[in-house]
Design a protein that fits this description.
alpha/beta; Gyrase A, domain 2; Isoleucyl-tRNA Synthetase, Domain 1; Rossmann fold; 3 domains; 4-stranded antiparallel β-sheet; about 55% helix; globular; RNA-binding
Length: about 625
RNA sequence: GGGCUCGUAGCUCAGCUGGAUAGAGCACCUCCCUUCUAAGGAGGCGGUCUCAGGUUCGAAUCCUGACGGGCUCACCA
């Protein structure tokens, strides 16, 4: 519709305006609610070349277009805006087209390039929390949206399974786990803890013990006891300690932190952890066995969490594999002069011509840093999928700088595909009490939250009592569908780029702009359609405004999917669906559908309802949200 | 301190490639179930779009500055 008007104006620009016009001058917008019409053209851009008032210009263009296009029933001009009213026939044709198209809104499958979407990418020491939920839901949804746009999509993640932090939890478990009557240490089999929770517990335990030991060291230093410590450590302590005098409270805190770090470095515990890392890199059999055992616990625990989330992956990557690839890349780039080596043998890249500092890519002891493995991972992925046309990294915005540099280095290494890498940078999820902090115990656990939300859905659904006839199994499935739908919608209706507030108190809300509200409308339509049985053809109907508004909105669905894909934004899908549901509910309460006596009208309204349900289901599936037949 | 980013109703958020009188939900107040699912609908209350300049026919939207919040600038990940 817009396109037809646009090309007509472009083709006849000479006759209408006396000159060729730029396509950008043709601006459409939604017609205001209080003005008659379905589509509005902004007239201001044409006023100058027509040398007349906006209303005269609008009238001239309006008359011209209406004479050429039969879908324009009438037009009016209000203060510089040309409003068209579109004929019922046009809308009815649109409705019947989409009714025949089971994939309304979707581009043909695999009609576009292959993309990879990375999301989740957990640290194996930390059970998944609320922040990961936003990440997983977003990543999964963006992947689905890109598929709907015709892309072939590979869902992936990079598992953060190596490094000193992993050794910390291994060491803590070996050293601090109590033994049971059979002489076994704690495991998922002999405790009630999920594997990821168990490992996470020992990661925390390591930190606790480390602090304890560091405090003991500081206490001895403070009494002047320095036996067994290197001279530079003692000097550093004395320097820091004496600099405390004559300072304000804040800088004293900073100095104390430095002293703490100094002492931590001197603990036997940390030394042993580092030793373990060296052994791990040397593939020491005993350490390797411990590593694979504890990792398998974590994966099993994560698996059940992913299942509850309803997300999946096509291909996994492990840092324990890709850091080696990264090291090779760096050795190679070093030869080519892209990187440089300092005296201490650490390897860097100079980014000063980009206005940035130099960045470390390999430690002086030759071990890998975060950047090293990310370079390797990207390279690995393009090697595995030669037709890959881009990677979308779903990672929080605290890593904006990291990704800027990662893409820059890949470019400098000569990988042309680096230009197609995109950081889907999303904002933090804050609690009413502020940011989640593990040390303060304010982290909202993913498993707990999901269980909670499903339990609340159960309670609230039972209160309504709409579904007594369902089997227990179906009821449970419904509670999960509603609870998870509410949670997912809550986390995805906000623009991904923005940080958002999560209030656990009303994490599952049923009214207003929520998942269950949308699900409810779907269920209501389904119930209507079931009662109606088969739907007959209809003829000669005229539309109410409520009806043409809905068809107009449904017609926009294909463009919406395209926009959401370009913007990598599930929020656009969520808001669109909410608007659709509001339009439908308004319609539902203003007319009879099943009880309508005019058969043609009744059938048209049923077809309309059916297509609303279809689009709701499609849109929600793009968000990873299921919709019920009954609720 | 440098860089990035955000600031819209009491709260949570839309709107931002410049366009008409800035929109929703929650909360609060009225109404509507002998209508097909009231997890619904209709209405009311609520705004100096942080502030100050600028660009122009027109600015919540673009530019500059100030103020306030967040992130980041590790041989951490």
């Amino acid at each position: 519709m817009e396109n037809e008007i646009k090309s007509l104006l472009l083709d006849n620009a000479k006759a209408l305006f006396g000159e060729i016009i730029d396509e950008k001058l043709i601006q459409f917008q939604k017609t205001r609610k209080d003005v008659e019409g379905d589509l509005t053209l902004v007239i201001f851009p044409f006023v100058k070349m027509l040398k007349c008032s906006p209303s005269e210009a609008g009238e001239k263009i309006g008359v011209f277009l209406q004479s050429k296009l039969d879908f324009i029933k009438s037009h009016n001009v209000v203060s510089g805006f040309l409003n068209f009213t579109i004929s019922d026939e046009y809308w009815l044709t649109q409705l019947s087209k989409m009714n025949k198209d089971s994939r309304h809104g979707y581009a043909p499958e695999n009609s576009k390039s292959t993309l990879m979407v990375e999301y989740s990418s957990p640290n194996t020491n930390k059970p998944l929390h609320l922040g990961h939920l936003r990440n997983n839901f977003l990543g999964y949804s963006v992947a689905e949206i890109l598929k709907a746009n015709g892309h072939k999509v590979v869902k992936t993640q990079i598992v953060n399974d190596r490094g000193i932090h992993i050794c910390k939890s291994m060491l803590a478990w070996e050293r601090f786990s109590p033994l049971n009557s059979k002489g076994e240490r704690e495991s998922p089999e002999n405790t009630v803890l999920k594997g990821d929770k168990l490992v996470g517990k020992y990661y925390v335990e390591f930190d606790k013990q480390l602090n304890k030991e560091a405090n003991e060291i500081i206490a001895s230093w403070e009494t002047g006891e320095f036996d067994g410590f290197a001279d530079y450590v003692v000097d550093e302590f004395n320097r820091l300690d004496s600099s405390k005098s004559a300072k304000n409270e804040k800088s004293i805190d900073g100095i104390n932190t430095k002293i703490k770090d100094l002492a931590k470095n001197e603990t036997g515990l940390l030394r042993d952890a580092k030793e373990m890392l060296v052994k791990w890199e040397g593939r020491d059999p005993q350490v390797y066995l411990l590593w694979t055992t504890m990792n398998s616990w974590v994966y099993k625990g994560f698996e059940s969490t992913y299942k509850a989330m309803g997300v999946d992956f096509d291909q996994l990557y492990f840092e324990s594999d890709t850091y080696v690839v990264g090291k090779d890349l760096i050795a190679d780039g070093l030869k080519k002069g892209i990187f440089f080596k300092k005296e201490d043998k650490s390897v860097w890249i100079d980014l000063s011509d980009e206005g940035l500092d130099a960045k470390l890519v390999l430690r002086s002891d030759g071990t890998a840093v975060y950047m090293t493995q990310d370079l390797g991972t990207a390279f690995d992925r393009y090697r595995d999928f030669p037709d890959l046309n881009g990677i979308i990294y779903t990672v929080g915005n605290e890593q904006d700088y990291h990704f800027k540099i990662l893409f820059l280095i890949l470019k400098k290494l000569g990988f042309t595909w680096a230009e197609n890498c995109y950081h889907l940078s999303y904002g933090m999820v804050d609690l009413p009490t502020g940011r989640m902090k593990s040390r303060e115990g304010t982290v909202v656990d993913a498993d707990d939250l999901m269980a909670d939300v499903v339990a609340q859905a159960k309670e609230m659904t039972q209160e309504r009592g709409h579904i007594e006839e369902l089997s227990t199994e179906d009821k449970n499935a419904l509670y999960e569908l509603i609870g998870m739908g509410g949670l997912k919608y809550y986390l995805m209706k906000v623009d991904p780029k923005k940080s958002m507030m999560f209030n656990p108190e009303d994490s599952i809300e049923l009214n207003g702009n929520t998942g269950p509200f949308i699900q409810y409308t779907h269920a209501r339509i389904k119930s209507l359609l079931n009662k109606a049985g088969s739907i007959e053809e209809y003829l000669n109907v005229s539309l109410r405004e409520e009806e043409s508004e809905i068809i107009k909105h449904l017609t926009h669905f294909p463009a919406l999917i395209s926009e959401a894909g370009k913007a990598h934004s599930p929020a656009l899908i969520a808001n669109y669906t909410y608007d659709l549901v509001k339009l439908y509910n308004h319609f539902y309460q203003s007319v009879y559908i099943l009880k309508e006596e005019n058969e043609d009208l009744k059938n048209m309204r049923l077809i309309l309802s059916k297509n609303v349900a279809k689009v709701i289901a499609s849109a929600m599936s793009l968000l990873g949200i299921k919709v019920p037949e009954k609720m």
